[in-house]
Amino acid sequence: MQANINRNQLFVASCLSLLVTSLSFGIRAGILNKLGTDFQLSTSQLGTIAATAFWGFPLAVIIGGFIVDIIGMKRLLELAFIFHLAGILLTIFAGGFWSLFISTLLIGIANGTVEAACNPLVTSLYSDNKTTKLNHFHLWFPGGIVIGTLISFYFTKWGISWQIQVATMLIPTIIYGFLFFKLKFPVTERVAAGVSTAEMYKSLGNFLFIFMIICMFGTAITELFTGQWIDVLLKSVTDDAILILTISTGVMVVGRAFAKPIVKSFSPQGVLVISAALSAVGLYLLGHSTGNSIYIGALVFGIGVCYFWPTMLGFVAENLPKTGAVGLNLMGGAGMFAVSIYMMIMGKFYDEKVLGKLPAGSNLADYNASSATPEMGAALAQAKTAAGPEIINATLVIPIILTAAFIGLYFYMKGKTKPSIHAAH
After folding, report:
1. 231-278 pLDDT, tens digit each
2. For labeling, which of 34, 94, 186, 290 is most exposed (least CB within 10 Å)?
3. To 5 degrees, how large is the angle CA 170–CA 174–CA 177?
4. Domain ranges in the chain?
């Protein structure tokens, strides 16, 4: 560790910046239906707005990965603060589709910038304990979603506007901005080890890295698409659909907090096999349950996706260390990009499914309009009740494929020793 670096304060500030990222997911998931009502937006438009955060994220995380070693992690996180502040304020004062689109894009860029700087920052601060500390850092993602969904659930129940809900994100934003502006940062682990830029880029062509990028598409979609759309997909199945997200993400917080013995017992690749299998079981239960049994599905799903994101990054950081910050950020960018594409496809697919369950010749806009009759409202609710689980069942194939892929990875890695980034230097 380089001199005069306050490791604890940097880690706390990193966690707060990720908290803002996750609050944006949790609160947006809770207010998505309300935004649709207030601004008369279709499910496809809501899907586009939600997906915009996932466009901004890969854009920022990939660009950030390429420039983090040039401008430093400190400058990158100062930019994240500015984007978060602008995005939150623009959301609060949004007037329709385009202002929501732009504000969500800004927040997505901020979220990606946080990830671009904080993942290499955590691996640099804790180079001897990467996967565990990445799990501890990333517990603030589900942690913030739990806080965000509870804020949204109770504030809505108490009649507090969605604008105030969004404004709560300003508190951790200002605190993390203050800390990052005043603290001194280390250089990335790759720079500290003396691995050249050319060697880093060469490492990105490794077959194992390409395999992990492809798997990241699936793990990100399984975790983030389901979480972001749970209120829309299961709203008609249960009155408290957003609490399903709270349960599954609450399990993730606890699981990531106790990651050290789990990772030590099963290895990162072993953890990924178990995660994929449990995610598949959890999604199956969510798509085939009604009443209180749906919460069991949420619990199993939460345990399944718990270790996906940080363990994918931890595996790359430990087994492909020469890929550096670019490797970590390409992983994150690939995951978010896959989610954004999948969200748009599924938004349209969901609308088609709902429309298919309405009388022939129906128009969704008529059924969503304020002038819709009570009979039309009942028919729409019934169509949505049937369509939501069908989207979940369509997504189920992804963790099933991942289970097979990670079993292959487990046997491929058996007996291999982890390479040291310092070995050739």
Report:
1. 665 665 556 666 776 787 788 899 999 998 998 889 899 999 999 999
2. 290
3. 135
4. 7-413
Q: What residues have CB less than 8 Å from 187, skipping those under 6 apart?
A: 2, 69, 72, 124
Q: What is the H or E stretch that residue 117 is in?
A: helix 97-125
Joined together, the tokens standing for residue 12 give 């706390």
CATH, domain 7-413, list 1.20.120.430, 1.20.1250.20, 2.60.40.1880, 3.30.1490.190: 1.20.1250.20
pTM of the model: 0.80
CA angle, residues 309, 310, 311, in degrees to nearest 5:
95
DSSP states of 294-311? HHHHHHHHHHHHTTHHHH
Instruction: Read off the tokens for 106.
Output: 């800004």
Query: Are the beta carbons of 395 and 225 closer than 8 angstroms?
Result: yes
Q: Which two tokens stand for residue 305?
A: 């996706």
For residue range 18-47, what is the model confidence (pLDDT) as tens digits?
A: 999 999 988 887 888 888 888 888 878 887
The DSSP code for 419 is P
From 140, 172, 113, 137, select the one nearest 333 (Cα to Cα). 113
How far apart CA 301 and CA 299 sit, in angstroms, is 5
Query: Which of 181, 49, 27 lies closest to 102, judged by CA?
Result: 49
